[in-house]
Design goal:
By secondary structure, the protein is α/β, with parallel strands linked by helices. It is about 30% helix and about 20% strand. The longest helix has 18 residues. Keywords: Acetylation, Cytoplasm, Endoplasmic reticulum, Hydrolase, Immunity, Inflammatory response, Innate immunity, Metal-binding, Nucleus, Peroxisome, Phosphoprotein, Transferase, Zinc.
Length: about 450
């Protein structure tokens, strides 16, 4: 059942004001009659033209809006100078109300362009259906304003213009929840490597569980790729790396490692390089983003280590790749564990906990319970030390000077970090990143 209706009047010209008012009145009347049981939210999208003498589009549309009492509380006119700005504002309203099923009523010749905007600004969480904005006979010249033929795929230059419009609008938005903050390790030499771990502040993601510097988009979440790209651009600007030479692991919760410059696997949780200026990244929202640096051979790596990847040895697999590919000496490799869920908050079913107990009993708390608490960081350290990494070359939450600690518990700090365990399926993601300086 439709949860929201979007009426697109954005492209209709000023010289047809009376017709637009009649058109809107008729459309709202139809919605009201068909929605007596479940009345959807209604958004009217229109253009706020620069230099217009009108006080506002809503005032201009008031004659058409009067009389719809059942829709009054759920009816909003959204005016903006670009379609991207108007549609993104409406997306915010939909997300505030957790609405996902939307009917778009618009001139037929604008449909294909609108689909391009929607494809960029929304994800598969949302369902859209389209209906033509019915034009009465004396209003047929409204169609003249539309530049396309019905059913025609937008030209590549039109798509590029839409992408540019969206990008410019997102770049203009203020950062949320304070300044962008990057945590850095004192273990990794900053004269050779650029690195850091992100927090949740300083981006433009507004959905509570994704706010504000979310750095991962998927079909199951409400943050579209364009928003994540803008968050990444802001991070790159603050950190000093090139977002066009940015490579993130393709998570499989296993132990495959990608060697930059060689054939890329379909999925991998570790990645290594000795190329300068290439930034490697691993996400984490409870799972550990692990960074690796060899200041002697000048090589680096990143890995995503959840409980499955930890058991499969993804961190040592990344180390071994650095040794075999770049001739690194095990004793030169530095490893830093980033913000991740701690043993204070993270529990697993008893059967899974047994695997961590086999690594070391200290990796499990309340082992005899149905859901013991697990220390994936300790397990990672133990496996790294057994593999040959020097204990002093590993930084995690066990360090003596807590002022140097960056391995915070993500679940314990909702103001600083995202947490899948804490926030549920629509969770945000931070990253650890590293590159070799030019």
């Amino acid at each position: 059942m439709v949860e929201a209706v979007l009426i697109d009047l954005f492209s209709l010209p000023d010289n047809l004001q009376n017709n637009i008012q009649r058109l809107l009145h008729n459309t709202l009347e139809t919605i009201e009659k068909c929605s007596s049981i479940h009345a959807p939210c209604v958004y009217v999208m229109c253009c706020q033209r620069q230099g217009s003498e009108r006080k506002g589009e809503q005032e201009f549309l008031l004659p058409a809006l009067r009389g719809f009492q059942s829709l009054k509380r759920r009816l909003e006119v959204v005016c903006a100078q670009t379609t991207a700005a108007a549609l993104y504002t409406i997306k915010q309203r939909l997300d505030e109300k957790d609405l996902s099923i939307i009917k778009v009523i618009l001139p037929s010749l604008r449909r294909d362009l609108m689909k391009v905007y929607i494809d960029h600004l929304f994800t598969a969480v949302y369902q859209f259906e389209f209906e033509d904005l019915h034009v009465v006979s004396d209003c047929e010249n409204l169609q003249i304003f539309e530049p396309q033929h019905e059913g025609q795929t937008p030209a590549s230059q039109d798509v590029a213009l839409i992408q540019s419009e969206i990008q410019m609008y997102l770049e203009s938005l203020p950062s949320l929840q304070g300044e962008l903050t990057i945590l850095r390790s004192s273990l990794i030499p900053d004269d050779i490597f650029l690195h850091g771990f992100t927090t949740r502040t300083g981006g433009i993601s507004y959905i509570p569980t994704l706010s504000s510097c979310n750095l991962f988009s998927s079909s199951k979440r409400r943050d579209p790729q364009v928003v994540v790209k803008e968050n990444l651009r802001r991070l790159a600007d603050a950190a000093g790396f090139n977002p066009e030479a940015f490579h993130r692991v393709k998570i499989d919760h296993a132990n495959a490692v990608c060697i930059m410059g060689k054939t890329e696997p379909d999925n991998y949780d570790g990645i290594v390089t000795n190329q300068k200026g290439v930034t490697l990244a691993a996400p984490g929202a409870d799972c550990i983003p692990v960074l690796f640096a060899d200041p002697v051979r000048k090589a680096c790596g990143a890995a995503h280590s959840g409980w499955k990847g930890t058991l499969l040895g993804v961190s040592m697999a990344t180390v071994n790749a650095m040794v075999s590919e770049y001739g690194c000496n095990m004793k030169d490799i530095l490893v830093v564990l980033g913000p991740s869920v701690g043993p204070c908050c993270y529990n697993l079913p008893h059967e899974s906990a047994k695997e961590f107990h086999r690594i070391d009993p200290k990796c499990v708390r309340l082992f005899d319970s149905a859901s013991p608490y697990i220390d994936i960081r300790r397990a990672t350290r133990i496996l790294l030390e057994r593999g040959g990494i020097l204990p002093g070359n590993i930084q995690d939450d066990s360090i003596t000077d807590q002022n140097q600690n960056i391995t915070f518990c993500t679940a314990c700090h909702p103001d600083k970090f995202y947490s899948h365990f804490r926030d549920g399926t629509n969770f945000g993601t931070q990253i650890g990143f590293i590159s070799i300086k030019d």
